[in-house]
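User: Second chain of the day. Same drill as before.
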Amino acid sequence: MAEKATYGITALRYAGSQIVEAMMGLIDATSARWDLRPAPTRVNEVVDRLVEGDTVISLFPDDEGGLQPGPEVKVDVLPGGTETLSLAEEQPGRRLDDLPRF
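Assistant: Same format as last time:
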């Protein structure tokens, strides 16, 4: 059985109010570093990773210039059937809209 991957999202790109890309990289969970540094990734590719069972987490900038893990990312369906991203739980300062934009 293949081990599921963990990805991190550090920033989002919007077209109007809709997310179109995420800056996403592959995380090496055993040593808390990047296996594959974040790169622009289309939303449908992020959705594919989630559907395949991989874990995708949000990563928020901290005061020291590093990244702090935030809530898991999940698939949300907008009216009209368009798939988008949302967070499993949102807290002040840890909402999807709080991620940097690129």
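Residues 43-51 form the longest helix (9 residues).

User: Great, on to the next one.
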